[in-house]
Structures are given as C-alpha cells and as structure tokens.
Amino acid sequence: MKILAILAVSFFCGSLPIGVIVGKLTKGIDIRDYGSGNIGATNVLRTLGLGPAIVVSVGDTLKGFVPVFLAMRLISGSHQALFVVAAGLLAIVGHSASPFLKFKGGKGVATSLGMIIGMNPVIAAIGFCIWAFIVAVTRYVSIASIIAPFAVTALMYFSPAVFGREVPREYVIVTLAASFLILLRHRSNIKRLLKGTEPKIGQKA
C-alpha cells in the first residue's frame, strides 16, 4: 500500500499544471492560448515575464524531485532503485499527459531535472550547467533542452570512470527514456529550427 501510495502521489504531482495555474493566478489567462501554447517556463517567460517563469520552473522541477525524494526515503531494500525510477517516470508522464489538461501537457525538461536532482544532485548540477551554457551560446532553449538530457545520460553511464562511483543501472535507463521522451516532445521545435523560425530566448513566440 505504501508503494502504491507513493506511485499515485508521483503521478498526481507530475500532473499538476503549474504553468496554467500561474497564468490564471497572475494574469487571469490560460497560458496555452498564448505564445507557443506550451505550459512550460519558456513560454511563461515570453508571455508573463521573469517572475512567473521562475515560479513555474521551480514548481515543475519540484514535481520531479518530490516523488523521487519520497521513494528514496520511504522505500528500502534491493528493489529501491526500481521504485525510485518508477516514481520519477510517473511524474514525467503526469507532466506530459496531465489528466487536468485532457492528457496533454508540457515537454518534461524541468520535471526530468527534478528527478535527476533526487537521484544524483552532482550530475544534475552538471547537466544544468550544460543546459545553461548551450542557452547562453545559442540563445535557443529548445536546443539546450534536447542536448542536455542526453549529456546527463552519458554522465550517468560513465559515472564509475568520471566520478568513481557507480550509478544504479535503472537510473541510466530512466534517464535515457526521459531524454527520448523530451526529444519527441520537441518535434515542433526541431521543425522550426530547421525552418529558421524557432524564437530565441527573449523573443516572442
């Protein structure tokens, strides 16, 4: 029952549409009707400004962190890593296919970051730095959001050589799965990048 409760909470946390809630509370608008139509922090930044975007970014990150944190603290034994992974993955799925939004949602970048923070804060910090560096150089959030997750997966896989500590195989698998999910969720961004119509950071969508 404890495990089922944690998994249910994980999906519920992930499904909370923070971007939509912040849009309603700050400006009385549905963020999906503006800019790119996405509920994530990037579209909130373009539409509502920096403050609301920070709130959404932190909220979406916590949606991935809290389930993993609970699973790691409340579940023990040889199968702990498996349930930690399940909790994180359910949070990402909830974010991307929220029942509150007719099973639609965001692209899962911040929620995936929260999951990685819970699993391995050091790798998460490096992954965030990679993301920030790519954004600073290219000014494309989408490019950074596609590349950084795969870089994190590589860090997870080569952790014994890089950090001298092995990461559970389940963490590597779920990080790779999240990376491909994020890639799929960025299909429209990739099309715009190829056409040269993808807005850079600071531009209107």
Write down the overall geometry.
Answer: globular
Main beta sheet: none
Uncertain regions: pLDDT < 50 for 5+ in a row?
A: none
User: How many individual helices?
Assistant: 11
Amino-to-carboxy terminus distance? 45 Å
Beta-strand content: under 5%
Give the ordered list of helices and strands. Answer: HHHHHHHHHHH
Q: Work out the helicity level.
A: over 70%
CA gyration radius, whole angstroms: 17 Å
**Annotation, overall tally of beta strands:** 0
Instruction: Name the average pLDDT.
Output: 94
Q: Which class do the helix and strand fractions yield? A: mainly alpha
Short description:
This protein is 74% helix and 0% strand. It has 205 residues and is mainly α.
Question: Could you name the key traits of this structure?
Answer:
mainly alpha; 0% strand
Q: Could you characterize the architecture of this molecule?
A:
The chain contains eleven helices and no strands. The termini are far apart. The longest helix is centred in the first third of the chain and has 25 residues, at 50-74. It is an all-alpha fold. Helix 3 runs antiparallel to helix 4 (50-74) and helix 4 runs parallel beside helix 6. 46% of the residues are buried. It has helices at residues 2-15, 18-27, 41-48, 50-74, 80-96, 109-119, 121-138, 141-157, 159-163, 169-185, 187-195. The chain is globular.
